[in-house]
Amino acid sequence: MTSHLVTGIGELVTHDERWGGPLQDAALVAEDGRVVWVGRAADAPPADRATDLGGAAVVPGFVDSHTHLVFAGDRSAEFEARMAGTPYTGGGIATTVAATRAASDDELRARLRALADEARAQGTTTLEIKSGYGLDVEHERRLLRLAREVTDETTFLGAHVVPPGIDRGDYLALVTGPMLAACAPHARWADVFCEPGSPVAFDGDEARAVLGAARDAGLGLRVHGNQLGPGPGVRLAVELGAASVDHCTFLGDTDVAALAEGDTVATLLPGVEFSTRSPYPDARRLLDAGVEVALASDCNPGTCFSTSMPLMIALAVREMGMTSAEAVRAATLGGARALRRDDLGHLRVGARAHLAVLDAPSHRHLAYRPGVPIARGMVL
Ligand SMILES: N=CN[C@@H](CCC(=O)O)C(=O)O
Ligand SMILES: [Zn+2]
Questions:
Q1: pTM of the predicted structure, to 2 decimals
Q2: Where along the chain is Zn(2+) bound (predicted)?
């Protein structure tokens, strides 16, 4: 077992309350992939090898708890139309499904790996990846098998939309029956796009059926909820004990109260509001109510084609009323909680030694220097 001392850390964000905030002039030792010591550089113990970061700030590696990285095709024309005023409805998902079904494993794998590398280069050290562009038994299973090559945090999203040409009831029976059975061995989670106002997504009763079947199959639950308008998604997620409800753009008081009382993380995806020109969710309202908030990219070809967690942090600070410290926490510890992982998202002793190293003196620069590639992931 080799120990690795990382020193020369100008500012270290650990999320360890005992330090009362970021540590200055810090060091960290990792052994066997885990943090074994954290403290002031002057007190650092000897180790087998050392890396001097020359005063860089370090935060926990970003935990991007919501992505759709296995897909083919291009929807830049749809984006362009949206910027010219055409609203997002979810209808474009069928375009990606057709292109994805037509792509070979190697084509999908090459794109997936390139996107995962792109995320890592910007500080992301954990990715959740959903299926949802296969929408039949063979292709949903294939997408999850490919996603599993990159992460253990895989999510079955057969209930993304009802594909064209199939009856809703028949599709629901497929998703909750044979498709779930084929996909469950390759997934840790199941998700559903619950949006009663959308002709292609699922209403509250349908979403309840999808989530109930997934829970019976041993999967953890996640929900796309309240993205395009108010609806039952958030309350359903809390009622069923989902780990996370994602988007949370249109919330009523009862939704916020349910989240505050429940055990479900509210995952905000501000890249979606940016790329669909929609109103941003009210993060301040959630935080002030005591809700656990996560930030994620939702990288996908339709609503946000960005893997950049620093961009999400900058948007959260600029547009959603979060402080830099709250946004960094949401992109790290919040994401880990949304995945129910206590070994990620912090740098206390025992955590995975996953770092985001910033070419900057402070975590504040993540929002202060938007669009500048200051973060990189480092897994020890
Ligand atoms: N809203 C549902 N699913 C994705 C978008 C998928 C797409 O448009 O391709 C989302 O999280 O925004
Ligand atoms: Zn999504």
A1: 0.98
A2: 66, 68, 224, 298
